[in-house]
Amino acid sequence: MSFQSSLSASTYANLIEHSWKRCHQVGMKPEQQADDQMITGALLKELKEQHRFLLVQAEAAFQKFAPFLHHAGCVLIVTDREGTILFASGDTDFATRAAQVQLQVGANWHESRKGTNAIGVALHEQAVNLVRGDEHFYIENRFLTCASAPLFSPQGELLGVVNISGHKDRFLPTYAVFAQLAAELLQNSLLLNQLQKEQLITLRQLDIVSAHHPQPLLTLDTDRRITGANQAAIRSLGNCLGKEFAPDGAYQVIPLTDDDNRLYRSVAIKKPQMVAIPTTSTSEVTYCFSDIIGSCPTLLRAKEVARKAAYSSLPVFISGESGTGKELFAQAIHGESGRGPFVAVNCSAIPDSLIESELFGYEKGAFTGANREGSKGKFMAAHGGTLFLDEIGDMSLRAQAALLRVLQEKTVTPVGGITPKKVDVRIIAATHRNLLQEIEAGRFRADLYYRLKGIIIQLPALRERSDLPQLAEHLLLRHADHEVRLSPEALAVLKRYAWPGNIRELLSVLLQASFLAEGDQIRPEHLVLDHPISEQEEQGYSLRESERSVILEVLRETQGNISKTARLLNIGRNTLYRKIKGYGIEL
Description:
Layout: H1 9-25, H2 41-50, H3 52-62, H4 66-72, E1 74-80, E2 85-90, H5 92-99, H6 111-114, H7 118-125, E3 129-132, E4 144-152, E5 158-167, H8 175-192, E6 199-202, E7 217-220, E8 226-229, H9 231-237, E9 254-255, E10 275-276, E11 280-283, H10 297-309, E12 316-319, H11 326-337, E13 342-346, H12 355-360, H13 377-381, E14 386-390, H14 397-409, E15 411-412, E16 421-422, E17 426-431, H15 435-440, H16 446-452, E18 455-458, H17 468-479, E19 485-486, H18 488-496, H19 502-516, E20 521-522, H20 535-557, H21 562-569, H22 573-582
Parallel strand pairs: 12-17, 12-18, 13-14, 14-17, 19-20
Antiparallel strand pairs: 1-2, 1-5, 3-4, 4-5, 6-7, 7-8, 9-10, 11-13, 15-16
Helix pairs in contact: 3-8, 10-11, 17-19, 20-21, 21-22
């Protein structure tokens, strides 16, 4: 079973219910004393020696957690696959209390010995779980609240469990995530230590979500067969162990130098070394116009322009702050256009020394470390389709000059080659910067700007949109791991916040809030915002709410008569219509 990022409250409850049933079936009684047999002395020493590599990695990976564990009053535990505790570190006061029920090194917390508990459930189900207070089967253990996550080897075998335990009265909901994060950290640490004999590669999942998910990691032998994979890579590639890894348009390898972490191009890797996420990707389109959710008039206008742009061959220029959905719009335009491949390029991540080889490709043996078969480059990869130049405003002047030349001539010449190749590519560019200001400052070429700005689409910032409630509801419905809704008080807080990270930040806040909300309602105390709400934001919110209330009141008095309402408010009919749409008022 794959490592899971989170489980819903109902799933936790089902895991516990099933565990209790198993305990009853074997004749356990809650009021009885649990099996407290422990291994000590030579037997414990021998067991630790068997798992020496795991323990060394655990101590190295978890040593920085000591201050947190002491503050939280918790202990962090690692067991073997049988449930025997091999490693424990944390708050000494709680450890003393935990030792009274043998929650310590040498004790076995398999379900068959300790009844329903987080370690036992994680071993049986191979899933993340949380067992709180009275959910423990044995009464003597009900002062505990514990969260556990299964620990897998690079080959996908169950090694044991990582657990965090504390007193039920002090254990905060956020601590439950810690066990999972610690397990992922330890798994990646185990994988990284195979570098002495194997290659380590990192992959980029094309539909980036995550920041909530760890980086996918693999190890390869000299024949490029996959010998190890962490759970994030298995989620991305499926059961890939033993298969040959052949990078294609979806996954590419870009090694890092050992000294300064600068990217350089090399596919023929002769010795183990770490590699970084690629700066470019070729992917299937995963978003269409139906995925662009919202009723804000500004957004709907941008969506309308984008839909029309799909049937044009003109370049498209998408402008908007980070997190407003620029790539979503780019993919939707491409998908509607019916053109060939969609190739995305992160312009800000391409070093000057790589620009020609990345965009235009290179011939066989063009430079040291080059792929023996050469590379066709991103323009040729997008031939007949769409090339999405993301964060074009961050591209260096040297790179801008090279790009302009191709856009003008509609041909590319690979590095090391002499024959230009015709290329048919539809360009969609995007940036969070004001390019007119960048041109004035001398950081962006005016001639390139006018080549790119065929059809301009300006995406509104989240703080400027009138449909935040609808958008938040959609994000919770689509991404939360259980059914949850925003309370009116929580929604009021969201409306007052400036959202510097826009929709990406909103989704992050909502996911954390849905986790912290133990019931089906998110309240203000569940919202963790990166920046305090300023007095100016409070005042702006108050003014908007006041104006909305006045408009609603006058509309009620006039029974929805627009002409009378506009006259009483001393504004024009068009202005009134705009405000009604902007405030989401239904007539």
